[in-house]
Amino acid sequence: MTNLAIAAEGLHKSYGEKVVLDGVDIAVPQGSIFALLGPNGAGKTTAVKILSTLLSAGPASGGIRVGGHDLATDPQAVRAAIGVTGQFSAVDGLITGEENMRLMADLHHLSREEGQRVTAELLERFDLVEAARKPASTYSGGMKRRLDIAMTLVGSPRIIFLDEPTTGLDPRSRHNMWQIIRELVASGVTVFLTTQYLEEADELADRIAVLNDGKIVAEGTAGELKRLIPGGHVRLRFTDPAAYQSAAAALPDAARDDESLSLQILSDGSQRDLRSVLDLLDSAGVEADELTVHTPDLDDVFFALTGKLEETVR
Amino acid sequence: MSTLSLAVRDSSTMLRRNLLHARRYPSLTLNLLLTPIMLLLLFVYIFGDTLGAGLGGGRSEYIAYLVPGLLLMTIGSTVIGTAVSVSTDMSEGIIARFRTMAIHRGSVLVGHVIGSVLQSVASVVLVGAVGVAIGFRSTDATVVDWLLAFGLLVLFALALTWIAVGMGLISPNAEAASNNAMPLILLPLLSSAFVPVDKMPGWFQPIAEYQPFTPAIETLRGLLLGTPIGHNGWLAVAWCVGLAILGYFWATAKFNNDPK
């Protein structure tokens, strides 16, 4: 257990009748990125709030250790080990970016010189030098998020929680944020991140857990999760109903969608596989108006597991 | 680092943050100063002659009577700002960040309280200066009397501030905080600030008597003007200590609850 940065057994939380987390197990090895993936309302933020000592865990929960410390008996030791960047920016909008950084330095009990050094270094690293003397409330969404992360890093935390770090950011800011997260992990930090973007989890995380309705419905590497469901297929679309009918007759294994005149054939996307489909079409004398190859991605896993969309499993 | 030095260090950091807010955005504090100053001028220049006559004197006697009450009312007015700023602060993400940091838990509130007491003292000095400008003079107050008067004002500010912090914590937004804290500026209207309790209707006298403002006002009057203090001194201290302790436990309990 000692090499786990975060270890939680049977995380429970409910508000009255409403169960938010229903027995969630989490194990995050040191120095890795763990992504908690789920739709809105799945309980991701609640899980982060509990693990970061902001909320108390429900009484039915098992043991929770963060950074090797017991969350229930020694929350201050947990707090000393972690840094948190919540979903809503945790900056003081009334004071400047630099003052926010100095505030963090003071609260981490850094000496004056050390505080100045860390502040200057992080403002530089997160491209905030120009805006440093402006009130944080005037910052753009991406700048606020960068200041937020910079403030989190002042105390050099070994474990960082990032609750939807790229929600609401434009594509460029999102890629910047990904780069920042990769650099953090390269320096040995453990990152626990929540996201509703599959691409983000796929891009960053060593392990992904899919949370739905307060339960973990799947867990593994991106590759393991993709193997869970047979999502690869070839999709053929027709505009002529007659051509559609003869193609459907030639490909009896295909799943039919009569409304959109399209056929879906399970396929691994290989050249040989595609050729056999095309040969069958040729011999039936029909030509598809559109052919697309779909390889399984996390979207398929996500939708299949969270049951939000029947389309991909049809 | 020991718990005490951690508490002192973090609280002074939080105090610096609150003073920075107050310095950068002084409009809230200054707006709240308007009420006691307007009332002071209104009661002195519009009602002063009549009310002074009722006390067996004139306008200058009424200034002397009125100023101590308005100094305490200034504190009641200033702490409304405290309730508002605590409530606004709690809705900010930065408070959630503080809660996940290994800092002294109470420092967030202590920073607010000390900042607010300092603002109250500054406001009292300003309103006092207006009082002196329009003719208020303390008669035969010794240095000890002045120190005691100052101590009473600080203690009173501390008590009302802790109550206001609790009110700010239970309020979902700034408007609600302002409404919840309203009694703190209405109570002096029902006290001996404007007219003596024994000149009020008999049924109303208990309301004026059994509340924190009246004994505090009577004590301050006694210290600055040499009027008899009697048991009001102890009553005022008891009210202040009681409210401060109540407010402290109420506010810290609310703050330690899970945030919504």
UniProtKB/TrEMBL annotation, chain A:
SUPFAM superfamilies: P-loop containing nucleoside triphosphate hydrolases
Bilayer disposition of the protein: Peripheral membrane protein
Keywords: Antibiotic resistance, ATP-binding, Cell membrane, Membrane, Nucleotide-binding, Translocase, Transport
Alphabetical GO biological process terms: response to antibiotic
Main location: membrane
Gene Ontology molecular function: ATP binding; ATP hydrolysis activity
Gene Ontology cellular-component terms listed: plasma membrane
Domain ABC transporter: 6-238
Compartments (UniProt record): Cell membrane
PROSITE patterns, per the entry: ABC_TRANSPORTER_1, ABC_TRANSPORTER_2
Name of the protein this chain belongs to: Daunorubicin resistance protein DrrA family ABC transporter ATP-binding protein
Biological source species: Actinoplanes cyaneus
UniProtKB/TrEMBL annotation, chain B:
A GO cellular component annotation in the UniProt record: ATP-binding cassette (ABC) transporter complex
The organism's place on the tree of life at top rank: Bacteria
Compartments (UniProt record): Cell membrane; Membrane
Membrane topology according to the record: Multi-pass membrane protein
UniProt KW keywords: Antibiotic resistance, Cell membrane, Membrane, Transmembrane, Transmembrane helix, Transport
InterPro entries on file: ABC2_TM, ABC2_TM_bact-type, ABC_2_transport, Nod_factor_ABC_transporter
Membrane-crossing residue ranges in chain numbering: 25-47, 62-87, 108-134, 146-169, 181-197, 233-251
Any one of the GO BP annotations: response to antibiotic
Main subcellular location of this protein, as a coarse class: membrane
One Gene Ontology term of the molecular function aspect: ABC-type transporter activity
Domain ABC transmembrane type-2 as annotated: residue spans: 27-258
Protein's UniProt keywords contain Transmembrane: yes
Family (UniProt): Belongs to the ABC-2 integral membrane protein family.
Protein's recorded name: Transport permease protein
Organism the protein comes from: Actinoplanes cyaneus
